[in-house]
Amino acid sequence: MIRVVLPPHLRTLARVDGEVELEVKTPVTQRSVLDALEAQYPMLRGTIRDHVTRLRRPMVRFFACGEDLSHEPPDVPLPDVIAKGSEPFLIIGAIAGG
Amino acid sequence: MSNIRVLVGTRKGAFILTADGTRKRWKVRGPHFAGWEIYHVKGSPVDPSRVYASQTSGWFGQIIQRSDDGGKTWNTPGSSAEELKSPDGMPKGESNKFVYDTSPETGKPLTTHQWYDGTQHPWEFKRVWHLEPSLDDPDTVYAGVEDAALFRTTDGGKSWHEFAGLRGSDTGPKWQPGAGGMCLHTILLDPKNPQRMYIAISAAGAFRTDDGGKTWRPINRGLHSQYIPDPNAEVGHCVHRIAMHPSRPNTLFMQKHWDVMRTDDSGDSWQEVSDNLPSDFGFPIDVHAHEPETIYVVPIKSDSEHYPPNSRLRVYRSRTGGNEWEALTKGLPQRNCYVNVLRDAMSVDSLEPCGIYFGTTGGQVYTSADAGDSWKPIVRDLPAVLSVEVQTLP
Questions:
Q1: Rounded to two decimals, what is the model's pTM?
Q2: Do B94 and A7 lie within an 8 Å CB cutoff?
Q3: What would the CATH number be for the domain defined by B3-79+91-393?
Q4: Which of B58, B91, B94 lies nearest to residue A39, judging by beta carbons?
Q5: Residue A98 placed within a domain
């Protein structure tokens, strides 16, 4: 199972507490994780990446294993520890504004 | 006895204020969607339990929320299990999908408008400013969005489609964003002619359709705006708000960036009716529920000083459809007041006497149960108020 941590506003929108666990087909990539997330929580469509372009929204970031993966191509495999579920994939709202 | 429900959108959530018909004791519920900007909340005139909200965020974009129980519980439309799957197995989740129409069969889809530096700039969806439920179908709602365009849902908010003819009305490349962005903020539905609608855009002006939204034309003759190169241009005017009394849909009242205006020929020509106002800059304008010639504005000092003249918060009322204005001050702060009242933040109920409501950027929501003669705050310390709508319930 892949573990995903959503920012607080999206946890409220998806009506979940804590981490989300997802079944994701291999290879585990940003795209496959987000596809699985949106399939399980359709109300999140459009909030993390654009409905049409599928690009990451500008003020959303993806972190994993202490690294900012936001600028990685969406089909690059994520680190093994993410694919194995020992570390979570973090979706972050950029720290800006109030 | 009737009840009143006031729907308040703020910078940090939605609030619902309720009272019985005496309008003396109020309950405050909320925040709903805490932490999100709620640009507008409005109920269906056909089914008052059906309420729509525009929830938005600079981080996470646009969300549409719908309540079927008068605001007690909310859902993103189309989120029941059987509604989620499209034929290819992917989730729909399209209640927040506002995609500009670029199909060739819809006419002349535009791809650019005028940018701040005078260059052409592509249309980019940012948020929904205004939701206008249909007069006869609770599942049909019109949405005014930034960058300026008009969308409609006919399935209760599950999906939205653009009226591309508005952006395709030749003048689109001359539209430009005002300080708040290039927003379509006013949608007026003609109760006597279902083919006719009025909309207003900042900063483009007012537009009318007479064929149900297929084609549109600018209706700005008589507007005079010193801040654009040709003060009498066909488009480019920063219209802040338009109001209409349902019994007289050919008469409209407008609060422009500067100037209060009226038309009696459905926008074909406008006349200024500011006269003795202390400032004719402001944002909201509204009409008394039972007196079509009684109108209300909130004068603001200037476009660079968004607070009341002389730091005194005063609603101005004209019982003559403009030109002769009286200050309404009883119960409103008359010193050290530096709040603003935004364009969607004034509304009226339909009780007798008519109740008037407005919210401020300081978080106060004021009400008058005597058509403006006296005022009191329902609540004082909400986040900055973006919109106020009132439902008069049986």
A1: 0.95
A2: no
A3: 2.130.10.10
A4: B91
A5: no
